[in-house]
Design brief:
By secondary structure, this protein is an alpha/beta fold. It contains seven helices and ten strands. Helix 6 packs across helix 7. It holds the Pfam family ABC_tran.
Length: 277
């Protein structure tokens, strides 16, 4: 309880929090989300919603805070303040571990194991015990097929190309059919055909399995493939909207032009604020 000094104004009533998001339609909800690293503020007072069963693109230049935001979502980021709710629970809650698939920028695979052995290992961690052996085998086989690595299932991961190793990491994230996939620049290093196939897979996952995907990228043409976009710059959120709505709002022909328009607006606003101090 806070005491007021004599003669000091008494505080007014605490602000009424907004309505809680419906966990049946909302996968992620953030309010006043801030992350600091030493003296630097990496994410600044973010507020957004990620709807279920859709692909939300997290777009922005390198260094704008995309990876930090994703680590906050999966519960591995330190010094996070504000509200961050994931699948109806606080981010990092133990019950979310099997409900979220997370792919980092660097492939998380063992080079001295084959593709199938890598997936067998992680499947045993997610779903341990002999009674689950058949189910694990089904999940492994499906995940390998999803990322089009069936013909490489018995190849050592260390002998694969960089793009193939990235797909092994994605296959690991697909094990157990997670409700939410958090993918940090999953198409980096892929040729145009594989990028197209991977985006087709993302849409199949959202449409056929109801999976929610949050996909980061600094390649603006990938924004056109998303249902919804979060556009970031320097730790701030410039927009949270659909591609069509962003183009209409800015009068731009492409999302890239819309992004540049929003950057110019933010820069001009910052300069105006600086000159009026």
């Amino acid at each position: 309880m806070m005491n007021n000094a004599p003669g000091s104004p008494r505080p007014g009533p605490a602000p009424t929090p907004g309505p809680l998001p419906d966990p049946h339609t909302t996968a992620v909800h953030a309010e006043n989300l801030t992350v600091t690293r030493g003296p630097r503020t990496v994410l600044r007072d973010l507020g957004f919603t990620v709807p279920r069963g859709q692909i939300t693109g997290l777009l922005g230049p390198s260094g704008c805070g995309k990876s930090t935001l994703m680590r906050a979502l999966v519960g591995t980021q330190a010094k996070v303040t504000g509200t961050l709710t994931v699948l109806g629970h606080p981010a990092g809650h133990p019950t979310l571990r099997t409900r979220i698939g997370y792919v980092t920028q660097s492939p998380s695979v063992y080079d001295d194991l084959t593709v199938r052995q890598n997936l067998d290992y992680f499947a045993a961690i997610l779903d341990p015990g002999r009674p689950a052996a058949d189910r694990r085998d089904d999940h492994v086989t499906r995940a390998i097929a999803d990322v089009d690595l069936t013909t490489h299932a018995d190849s050592l991961a260390g002998n694969l190309s960089g793009g193939q190793r990235n797909r092994v990491s994605l296959a690991v994230a697909l094990l157990g059919a997670p409700e939410l996939l958090v993918l940090d620049e999953p198409t980096v290093g892929l040729d145009p055909v594989l990028r197209r196939d991977l985006w087709n897979l993302f849409h199949d996952l959202a449409t056929d399995r109801g999976t929610t995907l949050l996909v980061s990228s600094h390649v603006m043409d990938e924004a056109e493939r998303c249902h919804r976009l979060l556009l970031m710059r320097e730790g701030r959120l410039l927009a949270d909207d659909t591609p069509d709505a962003l183009r209409t709002r800015t009068g731009a022909a492409t999302v890239q032009e819309a992004f540049l328009h929003l950057v110019d607006e933010a820069t001009a606003a910052a300069r105006t604020k600086e000159t009026t101090r």
